[in-house]
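Repro:
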Amino acid sequence: MSSLRTKGKSTVVWLLMGMLLLGLGGFGITNFSGIGSAAIGAVGDTEIDSDDYLRAVSSELRALAAQTGQTLTPEQARAIGITQNVQARLFTAAALEEEARRIGLSVGDETVLRDLTSAPGFQTTGGQFDPARYQEVLRQEGLRPAEFEEDVRMDAARLILQDAVVGGVTAPQTLRDTTAAWILERRDFSWDELTTEDLAAPITPPDDETLVAWHQANAARFTAPEVRRITYAWLTPEMLVDSVELDETALRDLYESRIDEFRQPERRMVERLVYPSDADAATARARLDAGEATFEQLAVERGLTLTDIDLGELSEAELGVAGPAVFALDQPGVVGPVQTPLGPALISMNAILDPVDIPFEQAVVDLRAEAAADRARRVIEEQAHDLEDRIAGGATLEELAEATDMELGTIEFSAETPSEGIAAYPGFRERARVLSESDFPQLHQFDEGGIFAMRLDELVAPALIPFEEVRDEVLADWTAAETRRELKARAEERELVVESEAEANAPASTDETVGPAALAPAQGFQVATDVERDTGIEGVPQSVVADGFRLTEPGEVAAVEAEGRVFIIRLDAIKPADLAAEEAEPIIAGVENRLTNSLQADLFNAYARALQAKHGITINDGALAAADARLQ
């Protein structure tokens, strides 16, 4: 390998600025060799620093926690592939950087300045670049401005490469229209659900010999689950709330620290749709005013969803230059084009939120409850060290409950245990499932606050429940299965009759407005017209409708068992999609966007792999293992 080394430090750039696709494909390992000890790997001469890898993984975990409310451990992150995905993105970025450097691709200072000042991570809530925030964010990430700005320059170069590869790729019109037509196709059906009334005779109850055989043949349905008899000691904030003391001054300080929650100016719920030029924004506004498109359709045309353009609740000041125009509206509407830091935009105001002014006297009730719970959590944290020492010293759970605030309890835990009491806590359920008799009690924390320790007293293996104890359940299960079998046989008989009737009554010619020859509804059946694939038929399982859409010619019939019920469904008409209709436009635009993104992703993936193969990949297993060990 050449002595020249560069650093593929795009990680923080695409975390803070969101510039590249990156990560559309994995990476192929072509060779292993020694590289810098601080690098987890390299593509050609472009190394991937272990600190960048750790920043990227940590950011992924924070983002996931913000979305789901759950904090993953490093082991869980590895188990669900987060670390592998980050590695793939980093090697893809390094491959692009290596190629950009090889061909001498770069950008000027003006481009770097533009990208920096428009990055949301460095802006105020009003959309203005904040130099102080810029310096603070870089300080928190351990980066120097000059270093980061060079990374931004390289990211822009990578983006040029990426655009050169995928920028001109669009979905073929034939593929787009075929897919949209499949989605928008509608059908008419005749359908009926068979019930016990359709049987020639009621189901005759079987003798006990038959039921015993059924009990044995379907043992899994009559087997008691594994049961773990567990003794536990636990302590939660709720147990201590009534005993903690609160200071009135502290409550007032808490109120003042959250004053933005209790006192808010008038706000508006808004969405912003940015355009590349004033002319584009003006054209969109004209179409909106003429009723030729909705705000949502305009977003779809630009490859965006309403979530992408939603700005949430903003005050007039937070809206910046658009504030006066938006707040001049006295009901929902659209303003613009207005100039924003991101360019000319249309802004949709969807709701008016009145000012909030909650005095301390009104807020104190909720504040007191929150403060008491918070204080109780801190009390538990303060006691945790002493409790751990007691357990380490050999104290039993019973002794803990006698000497401390912890409460003793027992539970017969299984997969069927309802989520109540201590079993309502996921942390307890996770540990209870794997607890063994050889495990010594340890102090564990609930994610919701609180602590617990547990001991497995007895493990009761799964066992077939004696027939005598579940005879009624066995009889009900046999009867339900026999009823379904009889109904399915009856449905298959009727299927032939209904198909014969359809053939006899089929029209002599094809009605071009509905496609293949349409049929009158089947006699005695319920009718569903203009059924779409996704909407289905009310009261009918979706799998029945799916089977209906698999039928190819009017008059075809299917007998379908679904969710323990039996149906007959007949296709009466196929109604091809009208792709020229106005309501088809957003579907066609959405299909084109998804197909284009998919094609671009495939092409970019192939290009990234080719670059990795061309320049060669090296991986420093020791550095990667050391970095993984540093994950918190």
